[in-house]
Write a structure and sequence with these properties.
about 350 residues; TIM Barrel; three-stranded mixed β-sheet; globular
Length: about 350
Amino acid sequence: MLPPIPTTLVGSYPQPDWLIDRKRLLESLPPRVRMKELWRVPEPFLSEAQNDATALAIRDLERIDLDIVTDGEIRRESYSNRFATALEGMDIDNPAMVEGRAGRVNAVPRVVGPVRRARPVEVDDLRFLRANTDRQVKITLPGPFTMSQQAKNEAYEDDAGLALDLAAAVNDEIRDLFAAGADVVQIDEPWLQARPEQAREYALPAINRAVEGTRGTTALHTCFGYAHIVRDRPPGYSFLAELNDCAVDQLAIESAQPKLDVQVLRDIESKAIILGVLDLSDHTPETADQVAGRIEAALAFVPPERLQVAPDCGMKYLPREAARAKLRALVEGARRVRERLTGSRAA
């Protein structure tokens, strides 16, 4: 049983320096194709090294006492490319160069034929996670709208059709992830904020297709991008209230770095909220009181039974000790709020 206001990750946790070339990671945009040169361990031993690093990440999260854990996305070069580049119809050997959401040019897959999932992609990752913890577990996938924006469409009449086929591939994966023991499957859709006009045209049908008929708790994460990559935050979301009508169960949003006016939570009446309360643009850990204050501000607009708390976004660009310290503050801040809620109810 989860406690009130459970704690979780958005997805990623810092990879150890012996596994990943952190200097190269920090100097690069998140890869949309493959970037094998990020790995310090050569291919014959890479899978075993990734397993060991994942087990260490899980132990970290358990010691910190996080309620819902992930595999830290330790095996991934970016949040999206592990899944997207495994799909049929994607040419990753001859990528296109396009401008990303941060205004810099990045290599992306060329869509050269019908997009299909040929095989399970992250199911073994989920099985490893499930076998290594008795806590509730969450695993993440890139969302269909975001993947449609991170590719060069050369095969479909329009991007809406591409997004729907990507959604069907995500749906197949989600079904297998739940069958393998996932408690929560989250789709990541940061590009909803970068391309709100396109999102209004075809994002919701794609998101709904991605989770259609799945049996388990589904979440959607939307944000303004990694703090390491995107420094300037707008004052509010460009595509948020629309998500109240999508078919996912939970909505994960960032609030700490952009100093979001949490009154916007009033617009999300039908979802559980996973609220980002850790600012990842600053490596200095929050105090537990700061975290508690951010949680209590949100409780003015969303009841505790519909609230979870997390970092604003993935933590992969942080130093590991900074990530640990921030998560300790998250757990302690949530504990203090729970105690105050219990005390007030008892009174």
